[in-house]
Amino acid sequence: MRPTDWVPVVAAVVRRGDGRVLLAQRPSGAHAGLWEFPGGKVEPGETPEQALARELWEELGIGVEVGEVLATVEHRYPHIAIRMTAYACRLVEGEPRGLHGQAVAWASPVEMSRYPMPEADVPIARLVAAGAPSPP
Questions:
Q1: In a designed cystine with 14, which of 22, 69, 74, 94 is the match (CB 3.0 to 4.6 A)?
Q2: Which CATH entry fits the domain spanning 3-129: 3.90.79.10, 3.40.50.1110, 3.30.70.260, 3.40.50.10800?
Q3: What residue spans of the chain are helical by DSSP H?
């Protein structure tokens, strides 16, 4: 697959003060019912950081401060090949709620293994469980 064929996707690792991490359940379509780190596709003309802030506002009604890159994962699904970059994010506005009918959860790093996830999210969950940094 050529590098230009990879679809750029961003994901947020948002932690609360108690160490719990925000997860959102996909409501429909590909991976319906699976839990993921919230985010989405980067649209033409926007930076990954802008895309992540936009997606979290549109999907969950929250404002975040986008921090450092935690990981980049490339994964080929049957219908799409994604290059997902996960960022440490700090919640600065709102309380997460599924604006498109999706459930949200705050999971401890240990509990994350109980949430079925799309394959691309699994390495990020492992990184978080191993103690990846969170923003100040």
A1: 22
A2: 3.90.79.10
A3: 48-60, 122-129
